[in-house]
Amino acid sequence: MSDTADLTFLQTLRRVLHQERQIESGTVIYNLPVPFGFRSS
Amino acid sequence: MQFALTEDQTAVRDMARGFADEKIAPHALKWDEDKHLPLDVIREAAALGIGGIYIKDDVGGSGMSRFDAALIFEALATGCPAVSSFISIHNMAAWMIDGFGSLQQRRKWLPQLCTMEKVASYCLTEPGAGSDAAALRTRAVRDGDHYVVNGQKQFISGGGVSDIYVTMVRTGAEGAGGISALVIDGKTPGVSFGANERKMGWNAQPTRAVIFENARVPVAHRLGDEGIGFKIAMAGLDGGRLNIAACSLGGAQAALDKSLAYMKVRKAFGKRLDEFQALQFKVADMATELEAARTFLWRAAASLDAKSPDASMLCAMAKRFATDVGFEVANDALQLHGGYGYLSEYGIEKIVRDLRVHQILEGTNEIMRVIISRKLIEGAR
User: Fold this and answer.
1) Tens of pLDDT along A1-41?
2) What is the count of residue pairs from A and B with beta carbons less than 8 Å apart?
3) Which is nearest to A9 in space by CA: B290, B72, B309, B28?
4) Is B57 part of the contact surface with chain A (CB cutoff 8 Å)?
5) Are B62 and A37 an interchain contact pair (Cβ–Cβ within 8 Å)?
6) Buried-state track B311-326, b at ≥16 Cβ within 10 A, e below 16
7) Is the minimum CB–CB distance between A16 and chain B shorter than 8 Å?
8) Is B291 marked active-site?
9) Crossing angle of helices B229-265/B277-305, nearest 10°?
10) B chain contacts of residue A8, beta-carbon cutoff 8 Å
11) pLDDT for residue B133
């Protein structure tokens, strides 16, 4: 499951965004597998 | 200690709420009326990671916390408590495999459970063993590298639809220490199902008896050692109780939101309903009760995530409190709607019907009091 394209929304959130936030202080770009329901970026 | 959700938690909750608003809520009344389990929609939710919320990610789970799960199930339940609860029970059963299964067992079942290509049910209750679950009589007798299972499970959510049944059976002596947990494929010869029960609520998911008649189940399908089944069952229920409590909050919140919208447009005696102080105070109390229950649920979920010694007691407290509050708020919402609340098209009476059973299942609220008082009295000795 190293390819983020295969990750679900929740896996993406947990595995990718957490790490990215620790590395980058800039804007996090959300690349989510579904189009709806995301209002928090 | 902080009470605000993090950015991630807010994203999780909003994702689930968005799914509920778009994919569940518009169809919930029809599913209830038709007694239709929307597996296609449920699998769409699983594609977001909701099929294995707190399953470890090496087998396709989302690896999130019980706290996250509470946020998700409350949000989904704003669309339909019955659908949200169905997914919650699947998560609970899958977690038992994740938490107590071997690596081989986890790899065998969990990837398909996380995608919900396969669905799991939990089988503890029997016709003669409900609250007194340790008195269960379904027996599994060892025969070589199989168990031969005979008995009946009652009120099984997903019965006849689910693929996998995490089933508590008696492999030893009477009492809790004689119980083991088996993962039983629904297609096993000797496994059959009763009729879909006619219920007050939770109509968007089937409830059936699961019957075992000389069903041969590989010993390799046992979770953990013989005799720890009751421990597995109770551990699973700690989280299951949080999930059901969250489903109550979601349903009740939807009922409150509907009430506020209705009060804004409905007039009586020349005024809108929301201009009557008695009704203003009523919704103030409903919102206060819900917020108290939600805050407490989060505390219990955090305690389970932290594996606190008092987690089981807090989960029982939160389940008892949130499901009682949820039902009362939904019932008050029905009253605020007057005669219209009693009509199915407003969606309020469905919420009342759905939430009523939350006071009964995953351990009745009387059993919650047993768990709480036992812990209190043990601590005082």
Assistant:
1) 445 567 888 888 887 666 655 555 444 444 444 444 444 43
2) 61
3) B72
4) yes
5) no
6) bbbbbbbbbbbbbbbb
7) no
8) no
9) 150
10) 47-49, 62
11) 86
Active-site residue (options: B289, B362, B366, B378)? B362
Interface test with B, best of A10, A12, A39, A41 (most B CBs within 10 A): A10
Closest Cα in chain B, distance from residue A35 (Å): 10
State pLDDT tens for residues B295-335: 999 999 999 999 999 999 999 999 999 999 999 999 999 99
A40: closest CA of chain B, how far (Å): 6
Q: Which of A33-37, B153-157, B209-213, B366-370 has the lowest mean pLDDT?
A: A33-37
Domains recognised in chain B with CATH numbers: 7-114 (1.10.540.10), 120-226 (2.40.110.10), 230-380 (1.20.140.10)
- Whether B22 and chain A come into contact, CB under 8 Å, resolves to yes
Contacts with A39 from chain B: Cβ below 8 Å:
14, 18
The maximal CA–CA distance of chain A, rounded, in angstroms, is 27
All residues of chain B having their beta carbon less than 8 Å from the beta carbon of residue A2 are none
Tokens representing B327? 């039902």
Question: Measured between alpha carbons, how far is residue B192 from residues B117, B137, B215, B305 in Å?
Answer: 21, 17, 10, 37
| Nearest Cα to Cα of residue B121 among B186, B152, B84, B166 | B166
Q: Are B19 and A37 in contact (CB under 8 A)?
A: yes
